[in-house]
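Write out this protein's structure.
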Amino acid sequence: MSRIGKLPIEIPAGVKVSINNSDVTVTGPKGTLSRTVLDFVTLDLSDKALTVARIDDSIKARSAHGLTRTLLSNMVTGVTKGFERALEINGVGYRAELKGDVLNLSLGYSHPINFQLPKGITVEVDKMTKLLVKGIDKELVGQTAAKIRDFRSPEPYKGKGVKYADETILRKAGKTGKK
């Protein structure tokens, strides 16, 4: 039995979970999320908890068991608390500003980068060098933060670029210079 898959998902007050065949919809104070679960698992909804069980002990069913439970738990957490990912911009002249739902990045290229934010994602810019990506879908928040980071990944010599706030850049020594 999967250690993660067998744990029940607590449903807090104010959250409504509805199951229609293999479609699960979670509605809460921050919004609505829906997902189609695989046929290898069954869902059991009680008053305060949602449990996930697998139909047999095949490899695919065992793989889907813990994954489905984690995805549904992230949906419940997303509609109640939401998710966020912090980014930092390091470098002389590197900055970000938000204009409506377009993030304007100046990252040392000959042109500014205009990044259209996906629907359901908000970005807060603090002091033009700190970004906070927020949303209710954990997968979309992580993907958006990764796309922003990919515009200028941090380089190992001076650490210039866009990095996650909790990321550590392994620094390399530069040239030794004249002898």
